Structure formats: structure tokens, C-alpha cells
Amino acid sequence: xxxxxxxxxxxxxxxxxxxxxxxxxxxxxxxxxxxxxxxxxxxxxxxxxxxxxxxxxxxxxxxxxxxxxxxxxxxxxxxxxxxxxxxxxxxxxxxxxxxxxxxxxxxxxxxxxxxxxxxxxxxxxxxxxxxxxxxxxxxxxxxxxxxxxxxxxxxxxxxxxxxxxxxxxxxxxxxxxxxxxxxxxxxxxxxxxxxxxxxxxxxxxxxxxxxxxxxxxxxxxxxxxxxxxxxxxxxxxxxxxxxxxxxxxxxxxxxxxxxxxxxxxxxxxxxxxxxxxxxxxxxxxxxxxxxxxxxxx
Length: 297
Ligand SMILES: C[S@@+](CC[C@H](N)C(=O)[O-])C[C@H]1O[C@@H](n2cnc3c(N)ncnc32)[C@H](O)[C@@H]1O
What we know:
By secondary structure, the protein is of the alpha/beta class. The chain folds into two domains: 10-80, Helicase, Ruva Protein, domain 3 (Orthogonal Bundle), CATH 1.10.8; 101-296, 3-Layer(aba) Sandwich (Rossmann fold), CATH 3.40.50.150. Helix content is 38%, strand content 19%. Strands 5-4-3-6-7-9-8 form a seven-stranded mixed β-sheet, with helices on both faces. It has a two-stranded antiparallel ribbon with strand order 1-2. β1 and β2 (88-91) form a beta hairpin. α1 crosses α2 (28-40) and α1 runs parallel beside α4 (57-71). The longest helix is centred in the middle third of the chain and has 16 residues, at 104-119.
């Protein structure tokens, strides 16, 4: 308990938080840093350089409240309602998957592809159009829109609450004029349109494994059916009608299923060049399929 008479330094607050979270978290020090950085509106690295600075009483009390939530099992992301993805802080809540670091690869790959297409002057006359299937918090869609002012993004999600979060994030990053998020199944709400790129990080956890992960993310963002590929099996036949003649398709899935997914992509998009890409840990996690005519290379 913090008394009015004893102001606490950042260092002391972090030590207090680390001890308090030791039983409930595998990363008590990091969690305490993230919570305190959030309270102070700073990056965690700022805390290190200001370890001797004193907290205001309100700040110490707010930190204590967040520590209590975390100690009761609430994930850090949900305790603070924010999570960092591709260098930006996204609003998150219980309706959306907390965006994972491995998903940043999809943004990186799309950004690299867009850079190449822009260099080839393919978008001097029209905007680049992208579809994010299963948009969730809008992490992928908003990141790409924020990187490229000539990109317009549609996103779909079966969760109405997720779409609301994605819309708030689009406003947060001032890309709402170029992002449209729609409630609906896979490509169904946009089946009349064509895109330069389609990205999907659909639920890919095998149903039998969902229970072990339940608690932090909604089931609708996790459950991919018996082998984790049910959503992709339904998505792939729906892709050709929504793709332009030149396109990029990027999909994320679980490493053990990625070769099967690549075969499914090859069957659905026989004209595409299909490649498997690895995550930061060296595991095969993504399938990239592209078709580029010589004129735009
Ligand atoms: C694994 S989360 C990914 C969220 C976000 N794209 C990201 O990478 O952080 C999958 C998302 O797909 C949505 N979803 C599940 N089934 C869907 C379907 N049939 N059509 C559209 N979205 C779906 C879920 O609601 C969830 O938001």
C-alpha cells in the first residue's frame, strides 16, 4: 500500500511489481515495466533512464490497480487495453486477438511487395487495393495503410465487436478515410470487388488445442477446425474472383500445416508462384502466392 508520506521511485515501484507478479506471471519484471510505462505514457526503455524519478501518488495508485489485475490473471495487453504491433500502439480488448509479433512478417512482406510495385510505376494512376480477411484489431490493415498513403484497405470479420475495434484503430492512426471494415464471412461482403493483394491471418489453432489457450483471446479468433485449416479451405476457392490479374496473397498458419496449406493454395491459384516463408524463429509459417506480368515487374 502506498501512503501519502512515502513517494516511490520508478525503481522501487518496478521491484514491488516484480515481486507481486512473481507467482502469476512467467515474465514478472517485463510485465511490471509494460504496466508502469503505460501509466506514465512512456516507452519501457524510458523507465531505465529515469529509475530514480518519483511517481506521483495517482500514478503509483494506478500502477497498483493494474498490478492487481495482472496478478488476478488478466493479460498485460487486456489490463492496459493497448498492444504494440509494427511500431504502433493498437487498442485491444477481449473481442480481438492480441496481435502477435510473428504477424508483423505479413506487413513486412506486403510493404516490400508494394515498394516493388510502386517502383515499377504500377500505381501512378490508381490506388493499390488490399483486402484483410479476418481483420481483428485492424493490426495488419491499419499498419499497411499507415505505411502507404496510396493504399486503400477493406477488412472483413465475423465479429461485429472486432470490426468496431478495427475502426477505432483506423481513426487512431488517421487512416480511416482509406480503411473500410465490414462484418461478414470471409470474402462474402466484398465478393463483387477485385484487389491487388489479399492478406489473411485466419484462426488456425486445431480445435483440440483451443481450450489450452482459452482465457486471453476469443475462440472465434483461434479455432481453425480439426487440423487448423478449415477457414483456409473455405477461403481459397473464393479468392480467384476477388483478385486482379496481378496480385499478392499472403497467409499465416501453424508451422505443422504450412506445406498442406501451400498445396491448397497451389490448387486454388494454379497460375501463381507459391512460396513458403519462415518466421523470426526459423519456422515455416507463411504462404505467399503472387502473379506478376512482365510489364509491371
Ligand atoms: C487470428 S485472428 C487475426 C486478427 C488480425 N488479423 C491479426 O492478425 O491480429 C482471426 C480473426 O478472424 C476472424 N474470423 C473468424 N472466422 C472468420 C470468418 N469466417 N470470416 C471473417 N473473419 C473471421 C476472427 O473474428 C478474428 O478476428
